[in-house]
């Protein structure tokens, strides 16, 4: 099973940049989208269906043009879970899960901490999603939570590890991501690529992408029972529909 995760920073903008042709070529079994910035009714969904994804699910923020996640599948899941049931998280449309017989896959968009109020919200979300995932694994042990975590975990994950006081690389954020992994998850990319320095996000400023001054903010976190099923995990920087690029994990299931 090939799973791709992609923060498209606006699905409508990505469509204008050739997203559908890229999707056909990449051909994942499941693709998790973050930051669609759209409600389903604002889109011509036949574009996704004609690309080979007849099963597409959308969980959007109450506020139009903001946040929101989606999952496209080639095969029909047995269950779709919209949100987490936690109102403080769900009104911004940040979590959507599809369940198959052998694995469940969640598209997650963790908040950024652009100012002090949003940073407080981010820390609250981090606490709640860790508790939620810990409880969820009791009934769904084979779980992949992929998406934009808005945090670089280690110094290898950022072009300038001397950067201080910036949300996304704060000590508290990095400590939380370590705690999240230690709770029973595997960072699939780092698991298979312990020394590879690659990024999944670049600022639009100062030619950051051309100079590869990036951050690895996007992860495919896989629960421990699936560890031996991870066959590949990689980043796809050649896809340029967004300030992020897609990441992928392949599981032998």
Automatic annotation (TrEMBL):
Mg(2+) binds at residues 7, 35, 148, 150, 243-244. Its EC number is 3.1.11.2. It comes from the Bacteria. The active site is at 109, 148 (proton donor/acceptor), 244 (proton acceptor). The record marks 244 as: Interaction with DNA substrate. InterPro entries: AP_endonuc_1, AP_endonuclease_F1_BS, AP_endonuclease_F1_CS, Endo/exonu/phosph_ase_sf, Endo/exonuclease/phosphatase. Residues 4-238 form the Endonuclease/exonuclease/phosphatase domain. The keyword Endoplasmic reticulum does not apply. GO terms for biological process: base-excision repair. Belongs to the DNA repair enzymes AP/ExoA family. This is Exodeoxyribonuclease III. The lineage of its organism: Bacteria, Pseudomonadati, Bacteroidota, Flavobacteriia, Flavobacteriales. The gene is xth.
């Amino acid at each position: 099973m090939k799973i791709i995760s992609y923060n498209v920073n606006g699905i409508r903008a990505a469509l204008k940049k050739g997203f559908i042709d890229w999707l056909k070529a990449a051909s994942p079994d499941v693709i998790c989208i973050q930051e669609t910035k759209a409600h389903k009714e604002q889109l011509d969904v036949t574009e996704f269906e004609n690309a080979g994804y007849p099963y597409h699910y959308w969980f959007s923020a109450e506020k139009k043009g903001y946040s929101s996640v989606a999952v496209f599948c080639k095969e029909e899941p047995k269950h779709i879970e919209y949100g987490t049931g936690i109102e403080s998280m769900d009104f911004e449309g940040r979590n959507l899960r599809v369940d198959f017989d052998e694995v469940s896959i969640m598209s997650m968009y963790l908040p950024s901490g652009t100012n002090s109020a949003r940073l407080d919200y981010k820390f609250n979300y981090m606490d709640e999603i860790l508790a939620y995932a810990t409880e969820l694994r009791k009934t769904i042990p084979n779980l992949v939570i992929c998406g934009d975590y808005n945090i670089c975990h280690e110094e290898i994950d950022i072009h300038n590890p001397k950067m201080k006081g910036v949300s996304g690389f704060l000590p508290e954020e990095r400590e939380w991501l370590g705690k999240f992994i230690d709770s029973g998850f595997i960072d699939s990319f780092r698991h298979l690529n312990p020394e590879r320095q690659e990024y999944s996000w670049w600022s639009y400023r100062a030619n950051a992408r051309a100079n590869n001054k990036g951050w690895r903010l996007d992860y495919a976190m896989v629960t421990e029972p699936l560890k031996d099923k991870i066959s590949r995990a990689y980043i796809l920087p050649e896809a340029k529909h967004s300030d992020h690029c897609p990441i992928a994990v392949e599981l032998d299931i």
